[in-house]
Amino acid sequence: MNEDQIYEIFDHDGILSRKVGSFEFREGQLLMALDVLKCYKQNSIGAIEAGTGIGKSYAYLVPAMYYAFDDPTDRTVIATSTINLQKQLMEKDIPALFNALGKECSVALAVGRNNYLCLRRLSELVRDNELYAYDGVSDVSKLNSFAAQSETGLRTEYQGKLDFQLWTSVCSDSDFCMGGKCPYFTECYYFKAKRKLSEASIIICNHHLLFVDSNTRYENSIDYDDDAVLPPFHHLVIDEAHNVERHATDLFTTTYSSYSLRRQMEYIYDGRGLRGNGTGRILDDLLPYCSDKNIYQEILDFYTLVRAKSETLNMATLNLLEVNNLAHLLVTKKNMARLAQEIGGIAREVVDNGMRLVARLNSFSSKVDADENRQARLDELNVHIHRISDVLERLGSFMDINSWDDSIHYLDIERHGQNRYVTFNNAPLEVAEVLSEALFKKLDSVVCTSATLDLHDDFVYWRTSVGLPVPSKGFLKKVYASPFDYKSRLMLLTPFDTPTFSRDNEAQYADFTCETVYQAVSSSGGGALVLFTSFKLMEYVYERLKPRFSAMSLNSMKQGEQDRYALLEQFKQDTDSVLFATDSFWEGVDAPGNTLRMVIITKLPFRMPDDPIYKARYSKLEEDGKSGFYCLSLPDATMRLKQGYGRLMRHTTDKGIVLILDSRIISKSYGAMMLHSLPESYHPETETKTLGQKIEGFLF
């Protein structure tokens, strides 16, 4: 492909103008496509900020397609952060481009292996639960019927709720896979999908799967010419690339909890065989084949002991956090002595007795003389023994301060049903080096794009966090502003008299937020997304305002009431509704038109100072003589603010208001930097008492 072809496709009266009815010429899109092509041709890395409305997906898809047209083996992987973007690419953008260009190449969606049903594991489940497997109403029966009808075996296609632990007992899992020796190998959903991936010239996946693949290659010295989690590839596009550091950190974080330990032990002993929800007890199945029957009771004794000790550890750690009014705790070498004093003894008992359980399980396994029909069951036992050992080692490593490196150790709380469990986590202090070595240095070309990468800092904040640039590879940086007319179609309101939140005025601040949100939403007639940085404040405002909005026939919705996709669909369909949300809804909300005419940002999105990963990275910057606020806190909040701001304008005809209820945006010196990062909009001076008048005057 050459530059002339880019112009023929994207320019005025080009192929897309003639063939795609909704297409509008955008200079930024054409220039971005030229940049992507340059990265392909020059084997370089590109960082491209493409403002909302640029049409960045077309800009990177066209070069990827033409490389595939010329050589179907010259594969491109496109990694996205959200399912919505994957669906847009697969169901809308790619078919539209194929139709316009009059050419096609093979495209496939890659999902994690655990999303596929394993037919062999299901057959064993059915065999061990025959009473439930054919009664028509049990989960096992429903799964069996699903397998008989499904072409993909994907969990997402299963209708209705599915017990998590049941699914983990029948999903495709590399540790349990028999490969070509499996009697179901030809029919296997996962391997059929993998064969389809190997034939595809363009693969769409999420960030997590990309990083699993790159880490697998890195740790096992697998080149990108060979198969790993993904097939061989040499070109990569990372869309929504502002999330790269966060998703890579999540992948490389290891965790212990009493829940994870108990779950692995239950697979062996409890088996969840009751009600047709599991595979039965592995130990009971294998006991007739074990030459030492006495060891069975020893295993049960240690199982009971370890489970009790792990629950005691969980309760003690929960109590420790609650007494100190903590939701999480960064564990440093300084405070580890106190933590060890509080829970060190019981943690050692969990590890020591757990390892004794592992030793007896290994002894049991070695003395099992299983026939061919039970070998898979023995293999399953050995996998769970290994996983129990791994979970225990994570706890032991966490408590052993002498084994610590520069990583981040912290305690957190997770919920499973009505129960809470403390997690012991070990996260990387930074991911830049591993991303550089495992990904950016190894591929021919990488294009990273998002609507929020640059903070008028030459991409310094973002690129430093992900390990760019890399030696010996070209690095292209470009910013293409949104083509939308923000100055006339978006009004930014930043009342100068809003109170500043503090612990002393928490109640007054919450009441102010309630009344101001009510005033603003009443003036807009709904169609509002209200973004919070605190679940507690969101709950309070929602509960206070829901009956008042109901009296106005405005439907109020809250994050967590139903799954994200269903919530957003309901919000888009009801043009006068109000959606209260936090965190993940600051990005990925695409509601063009009148259904979203106001975004209310209740507070600037600075991270909570006690967030363990943020706190550790902040402290490291300070230790190195840098400003944690200006090098981390401010740019991170600014990038999140840009994301929240970008929810409003999704189409050229959109019109609306962004209201920021945090006076720091205009009273603090750093506020100017944050405002400068946003698209230049109509920004009149205002105070809270005139909000309603300004909102009504602009919208109506």
Overview of this structure, please?
This protein has 700 residues and is of the alpha/beta class. Residues 272-279 have low confidence and may be disordered. The strands form 3 sheets. A 7-stranded parallel sheet has the order 3-4-2-5-10-1-11, sandwiched between helices. β8 and β9 form a beta hairpin. The chain is globular. The longest helix has 31 residues, at 336-366. Helices cover 50% and strands 12% of the residues.
How much strand content do the residues show?
5-15%
Helix-residue proportion: 40-55%
Identify the strand order in the major beta sheet: 3-4-2-5-10-1-11
Structural class: alpha/beta
Any idea what the shape is?
A: globular
Unreliable stretches = 272-279
Mean pLDDT: 93
The separation of the N and C termini measures 49 Å
Rg (CA only) = 28 Å
- Treating each run of at least 4 consecutive H or I residues as one helix, how many helices? 28
Beta-strand segment tally: 17
Q: How would you describe the oligomerization state of the chains in this entry? A: single chain
Question: Helices and strands in order, then pairings?
Answer:
Layout: H1 3-10, H2 15-19, H3 27-42, E1 45-50, H4 56-70, E2 76-80, H5 83-101, E3 107-109, H6 119-128, H7 130-133, H8 139-149, H9 164-170, H10 189-199, E4 202-206, H11 207-220, E5 235-238, H12 244-251, E6 254-257, H13 258-268, H14 282-286, H15 295-323, E7 329-331, H16 336-366, H17 375-399, E8 408-416, E9 419-427, H18 432-440, E10 445-450, H19 460-466, E11 475-480, H20 486-489, E12 490-493, H21 506-524, E13 528-532, H22 535-551, E14 556-558, H23 564-573, E15 578-582, E16 598-601, H24 612-623, H25 628-645, E17 656-660, H26 664-667, H27 669-677, H28 691-699
Parallel strand pairs: 1-10, 1-11, 2-4, 2-5, 3-4, 5-10, 12-17, 13-15, 13-16, 14-15, 16-17
Antiparallel strand pairs: 6-9, 7-8, 8-9
